[in-house]
Amino acid sequence: GAGVSQTPSNKVTEKGKYVELRCDPISGHTALYWYRQSLGQGPEFLIYFQGTGAADDSGLPNDRFFAVRPEGSVSTLKIQRTERGDSAVYLCASSPGWGLNTEAFFGQGTRLTVV
Amino acid sequence: QKEVEQDPGPLSVPEGAIVSLNCTYSNSAFQYFMWYRQYSRKGPELLMYTYSSGNKEDGRFTAQVDKSSKYISLFIRDSQPSDSATYLCAMSGGGGFKTIFGAGTRLFVKA
Q1: I need a surface site. Which of A53, A78, B6, B88 has the fewest CB within 10 A?
Q2: Do residues B26 and B109 touch, judged by C-beta distance below 8 A?
Q3: Mind telling me how many Å the CA of A84 is from chain B's nearest CA?
Q4: Which site among A32, A100, A103 would you substitute to test the B interface, given the most B Cβ atoms closer than 10 Å to its Cβ?
Q5: What does residue A34 show for φ and ψ, rounded to 5 degrees?
Q6: Is B20 helix (H, G, I), strand (E, B) or coil?
Q7: A26 vs chain B: nearest CA distance in angstroms?
Q8: pLDDT tens sequence across A44-78
């Protein structure tokens, strides 16, 4: 595709349920990032992948959050035992390289609402 | 104290005005400084990127970085209604691969 694609665009789930959020990066991009954006705030870093491996997962808030990228392309962010405080827009970004000076392209996000 | 501070606004200006947006930061290790624009219900898009201190100009946009003061600015000349969006400052190079974002400033340009 032409840009970063995230599915679903909206997800409503009940407290305590498990959710998966999917990110399809731009073809050929080796670096992939997940961010979380709460209302009125800037994106908050969650995790960074170089290829298949998580190079920096220091932003994951707790062990309920996990992300994978098994083939170095599509990534899935998994949230167990969801809480109301997990409600936010989850943004994925990809970039062609792994350096800090390479531009990251963002998807439109998945709006997660935990009720 | 947050690593990056940004006034959330909103900032309302008439069409044609010069807009000044600013951020301060606390981590002196930051090396890369960016400005993103985010329209409602869209992902951020990169506007300007600067390495270390200095100025960078691109069309109507000028980015300035003053590392000695830990202060960055974005100027928009001849502002247009289509510039109405949230502007996010962002920084990296302060440790790991993460980019740290400010809270964003909401800008409204009135026709």
Answers
A1: A53
A2: no
A3: 20
A4: A100
A5: -115, 135
A6: strand
A7: 14
A8: 999 999 999 998 999 999 999 999 999 999 999 99
CA distance B45 to B58: 15
Put simply, whether A109 touches B (Cβ < 8 Å) is: yes
Please tell me which residue of chain A has the smallest CA distance to B4.
A42
Q: Which amino acid belongs to residue B11?
A: L
Residue recorded with tokens 């989850």: A90
Tokens standing for residue B104: 């964003």
Q: What is the pLDDT of residues A83-97, one digit of tens each?
A: 999 999 999 999 987
N-to-C CA span, chain A: 33
Any B CB within 8 A of A72 CB: no
Contact at CB, A98 and B96, closer than 8 angstroms: no
Q: Which of B62, B63, B60 is nearest to B78 (CA)?
A: B60
The pLDDT confidence band at residue A1, using thresholds 50, 70 and 90, is: low
Cβ neighbours, 10 Å, residue B92:
22
Residue A76, both tokens: 């899935």
Q: Which of A66, A58, A55 is nearest to A95 (CA)?
A: A55
DSSP A94-110: EESSSSTTSPPEE---E
In this complex, the residue of A42, A56, A105 whose CB is nearest that of residue B97 is A56
Chain B partners of A107 at a C-beta cutoff of 8 Å?
A: 43
In angstroms, rounded to a whole number, what is the distance separating the alpha carbons of residues B67 and A5?
Answer: 36
- Are B45 and A106 in contact by the 8 Å Cβ rule? The answer is yes
